[in-house]
Amino acid sequence: MAFRGTWSRSVPEMNPTDVTPELNTPGETSVQGARTDQADLPPPSELGSILQAFQGVAQVVQLLAQNQVATQTQMQEVLALHRDQLMDPDRSRGALLLERFRRIKPPIFKGENSPSIAESWIREIEKIFRAIRCPEEDKVPLATSTLQDRADMWWTSTLRNVFGEREDVSWKDFLTVFRERFFPDLVQEKLEQEFLTLTQGSLSVMDYEARFSELEKFAPHICANERRRAAKFVRGLRGYLRSRIVVQDHQTLAAAVRAACLLEDEQELRLEEKGVSLRTCPTPVAGSVQKRKYGPSSPELLPADQQGTEMIHAVPLRAMHFVCPQCRRRHGGAECWKALGKCFNCGEVGHRSREFPKSKNQDA
């Protein structure tokens, strides 16, 4: 330790091996009195990128602050909602149900003089009721919230004069007064008559079933249960479908519709295959196809003096008949000669075709 001056101040000794540089800020003077090199500063381009980075950080901080404020606001709303629910549970439940109902965007009814529009409105509203599982006591308030113009005025008057401003009007009672106003008796009678005379005609089975379901509500006494619905549906089918389905005695409408669709598809496939076979068959040469007589028995040739007099190009009639459920053969006519015990040659009872007396006389 060395001492300098008269004040006896101690000065640490400098180690010549200690070469650690001093840390000086730009522009400061070192202990030795020399200034730092100005070249240590970053170039201007890097300074710009640094400033942009600082701006990005500031924007992120600002967004975080805004999100925090929004989150706090939502939490306050949730707390207020739960507080309202605790104070008035019925009112909060009704508000939530109304919000769910409006979120599906229910149709608006303005009182048009068209039964189809009114019925469509009822159908869509009931569809929404099933989707949100609406309780019975809330159906009328929710449905009437979609009424506008003349329909709204009608309901305001009806609620006051008919129901006495009651709040417990059932959906069934509402539909009764609604249909009385927007479904006149004349229109209902017309639609009921259309349902009573409804047949398949040229419609497909699915189109016929859709029209059937649309009109059956106007004749509830006809479709009192599933068995009667199925019977009414089967009676309106086309002949070849009705004759096969009526004996099956379906107990539900769904079963009858399914059976009719299967038979219709089978018939269409059969006609398509038949058309393909007719297109692929070669055209017969004149004189090679002779007219044959078809009847209940097996086909027989015409007499020799009549053969070749008339040439035809047609499908045998036997292929166009359905299979008889009694004899399991294809034949025409409304009755089965085999089941009745008749002769296939003369149609009389008491002998068979092999025992036909006239054929024996001709052979003799």
Automatic annotation (TrEMBL):
GO molecular function: helicase activity; nucleic acid binding; zinc ion binding
Polar residues biased stretches: 22-35
Stretches for region Disordered: 1-41
InterPro entries on file: Retrotrans_gag_dom, RTL1-rel, Znf_CCHC
Keywords, alphabetical: ATP-binding, Helicase, Hydrolase, Metal-binding, Nucleotide-binding, Zinc, Zinc-finger
Keyword Lipid metabolism: no
Record has Hydrolase as a keyword: yes
Domain of life, source organism: Eukaryota
Domain CCHC-type per the UniProt entry, residue ranges: 342-358
PANTHER family documented for this protein: LDOC1 RELATED, ZINC FINGER, CCHC-TYPE, RETROTRANSPOSON GAG DOMAIN, ASPARTIC PEPTIDASE DOMAIN PROTEIN-RELATED
Name recorded for this polypeptide: ATP-dependent RNA helicase glh-1
Gene: glh-1_3
